[in-house]
Amino acid sequence: MDIKLKxxxxxxxxxxxxxxxxxxxxxxxxxxxxxxxEFGEGWIMAKASQPIAQIAGEILSEEAPLKxxxxxxxxxxxxxxxxxxxxxxxxxxxxxxxxxxxxxxxFDRKTAILASFFMAVSVWHIHHSAMARTYPLYxxxxxxxxxxxxxxxxxxxxxxxxxxxxxxxxGFYSFYASLFVVIGQVCWFFLCxxxxxxxxxxxxxxxxxxxxxxxxxxxxxxxxxxRKAHFGTGRWGLQGYQIWEALRDHxxxxxGPYPWGIFVFVLSFFWLLHTRKQxxxxxxxxxxxxxxICFYIFCIYFFxxxxxxxxxxxxxxxxxxxxxAGIASWPRRILRFTGIFVFMLPIxxxxxxxxxxxxxxSIPYDYLRHYPDLSQIASTFExxxxxxxxxxxxxxxxxxxxxxxxxxxxxxxxxxxxxxxxDGQIYALYEDSKTKLYGVAENLSLLENLAxxxxxxxxxxxGLIKANRYKGSRAISTWxxxxxxxxxxxHFKEPQPSYAAEQPAxxxxxxxxxxxxxxxxxxxxxxxxxxxxxxxxxxxLVYPFxxxxxDFHEN
Length: 555
What we know:
The N and C termini lie far apart (61 Å). The protein has 555 residues and is mostly helical. Helix 6 packs across helix 16 (316-329). Helices cover 57% and strands 6% of the residues. The protein folds into two domains: 48-367, no CATH class; 374-552, no CATH class. A six-stranded mixed beta sheet has the order 2-3-4-1-5-8, sandwiched between helices. The chain has a two-stranded antiparallel ribbon with strand order 6-7. The chain is globular and about 70 Å long.
């Protein structure tokens, strides 16, 4: 039995879908929407707090300024975590609504509702709707530009071409990589309408107008390319085979060898090609998914551009829409139910993970939060900072998030600039009447100098993120394991137990181990004894850290 949705019914169903989406995004779901401000969010908030005329000059060259302008406006009403993340929530809900209109334009109401539902329960989108990085802004602009392009080719109204131009500009000023979506749209247009000279003329004029609107920021693209090339800092981004695993997991819906979502997507595409009247629609969705992915792969292999899984987030709604169109048109009910179940797997996997039935590694990496609870670290630091002389945060951008919890009203802003960059090592400083909080690049000699001048605490948030991947934020605060390390002849060496018991350490790290096993129980007991004798910095967040000397040099 085929279900047909009329106007009034589809409106009510859409309202229910949007309600489900809002509830999933505002409820504090562990490892999904619940969590402290992470270091990227702190950085964005700090830059958005600048005078609006200075924002474009303050941000990194590879970042487009529009999300900072939105957050700047929101910060006028307060600095609560909810307000900081409100733009992301707004654009994520707006994207679901925009996807409905795109699905209705390309196919029918049933397909539009199904695609909107898939996006409403998408763990990937739920996660990013609760982050101030505002990736849903990129999603919304991509859907909007695709909607107006297809409508312009069908209606031939000048206003639709103008709306397409504005949507392209909106996307470019949100995310420079949205140009890959534009290239996908260009490929689709000339594949489907090569002989329509009237449309080609309007298309080229519209592209010219978009280029004129983008000119103020086009000059930043070479700087952005240079900064992202050769994997940026060397720590971030997918490399080599990892891109294939990331695509398989995040589009497939599960971390494993069977990308069920991709199977449904491919079957849906060929099924829609079989229906000749829907061939242009299927090709459009394929183009705006496949062409950007091909460009990302090209950039990784030929220019070593730093790419992370969340860069694919703005392509995922088109992926969902293609799958929904195929599922809605499949003839057998069992096939339709199977297809729907495939896209319910991620949310079901999240529930199973929370119930302790599956491991965190069974869920694609970017579906969940992996950031440590910086509010807890800030409160620990607040309690014990009188016993400290220097506190170093690595990576340096984490200092903005810790400062947020120490100084909610931003009465003592973090100082950045060339005056702090001694040999390119110190990037940020938070200083009050009690102590100093440094944001530095990893540099062994600088840490040695600070340790020689006084008591030093190093907070390594990257290590905390890695630990979250294995145990989750709830387990971090319950495990305790510590060892002392001294600097000897330029090397970090692990001392013998007797030496560690007699001599104080120069360095203390807030860092969990990558994995804790049953064999660690003895070490944990020893660690507690050492803490009771020698450690006053913290009683719950100090963990072992064993690095090679090369790890302390900038890449």
